[in-house]
Amino acid sequence: MNILLVEDMETDVKIALRAFDKGSFKNDIFTVRDGQEAIDFICHRGRYVDPEKYPRPDIILLDINLPKLTGFDVLKQFKGDPRYNFIPVVMLTSSDDEAAIKMSYSCGASGYIQKPANYEEYVKMVEGFNSYWQVVNKLP
Amino acid sequence: MSKRGADALEDQKVIEELKSRNKELQDAKRAILNVLEDFAEQRTQLEKVNKELDSFVHIVSHDLRTPLRGISSFITFLEEDYKDKLDKEGQEFINEIRNGANRLGELIDDLLALSRVSRIKNPYETVDIRDIIDSTLESFKHEIKTHQVSLKIQEHLPVVVCDRVKMAQVFLNLINNAIKFSSKNNKEIPKIEIGSTQRSDSFEFYVKDNGIGIDPQYHEQIFGVFRRLHTEKEFEGTGVGLSIVKKVIDDQGGRIWIESQLGEGACFYFTVPKGLEKQAK
Question: Which residue among A89, A124, A137, B17 has its CA within the 20 to 30 Å range from the CA of B143?
């Protein structure tokens, strides 16, 4: 499964990559650091123009607090475009704010995960995530 | 001067006096209204500051989680990748960092719980206190079994109008403390009693234990945030639980207090006012 991880914190990127690497499922993970880059990646623009090098993600893991465009901005733009709006987006953020959760779903998110407190929890989260999206659920 | 003239003069004086008193009364009324307006404005300001403070605590606590996640995760990476290269002392240092990170995590969780109590207002509803106590005891069944805690729960407990979620937090914290402090009683088995008394204007509840007790000089300060009377080694916890309990009880218009002597157990009392159903509608 190709995953696009939209995350600006270097530490969180490293933790996520290691947790996905440790899991029993195999994933190809691409990372971008801000909202604008995420749009460029999905739409194959700028440095992400080559679809072979940067294939369409099967799922997007999207942080909310991002530089330039926030996660909500990305979600709104992206879900308004019929060329890409079928790709599931799962929010992955520190916040457990009720308003942020509602906003995410109303903007078209397919899921909302609060970032685990530590690496061990992260590994468990990744296992659950992969089981759902690769076994239980049918992806487009 | 004729008697009539003198009476008229006297009447005039009374009228002048009345006018003067009336003016004084009007001035006093205006002054009182001004003071009341000031109070209302100060109250609004205080509520605003309180709200901002709660929001600040919430945001800061969340922001603290990010570097903490990094610290605790990278300790694990260090252990996984370099454990063989570290001597005994190096591994002890890692354990100390991990303990510190875990402790910081607990503090952040408790700060968030405290700010949640202030920020989130649940509607008042009719709650059977027995249900709350049963589900709380169920969540502590492992500790109750391990420490062989003797429970005495009053048969008839009232149905009250309150915030169900927060009332559950109150019992959770008080029962947790009761188990924690009575399980260190070396003289007899831990005993916990829970009951209530109906007062004219409120329901009064108590949670009693035969634990280590609290010196009366600390009865007020135990409800403060992060106030602890024991070291982490003696009793785990951050010292936020009773602050949460007090905040919930205060917000509902109730009262909380403790009766205890050192070495003689403790009994926490709190009240839930009657009439909260009016606010529920």
Answer: A124
The answer to whether residues A139 and A88 touch, using CB atoms and an 8 Å cutoff, is yes
> Between A and B, how many CB-CB pairs are < 8 A?
40
**A101-109 long-range Cβ contacts below 8 angstroms, 24+ apart:** A103/A72, A104/A64, A104/A71, A104/A72, A104/A75, A107/A72, A107/A75, A107/A76, A107/A79, A108/A75, A108/A76, A108/A79, A109/A62, A109/A75
Count of helix runs (H) and strand runs (E) in chain A: 5, 5
- Strand extents, DSSP E, chain A: 2-6, 28-32, 59-62, 89-93, 111-114
Cα B256 from chain centre = 9
ipTM over 0.90: no
Are the beta carbons of A94 and B72 separated by less than 8 Å? no
Type of residue numbered B151: L
Q: Model pTM greater than 0.90?
A: no
Task: Look at B62 and A119 and tell me if their CB atoms are within 8 Å.
Answer: no
Q: How far is A122 from chain B (nearest CA, A)?
A: 9
Helix (H) or strand (E) holding B52: helix B3-82
Report which secondary-structure segment, H or E, holds B159: strand B159-162
Q: Which residue of A has its CA nearest to B78?
A: A119
Do the Cβ atoms of A20 and A5 come closer than 8 Å? no
Please give the share of chain A, as a percent, with pLDDT higher than 90: 71
CB A38 within 8 A of CB A91: no
* Tens-digit pLDDT profile for residues B37-62: 999 988 888 888 877 777 777 777 77
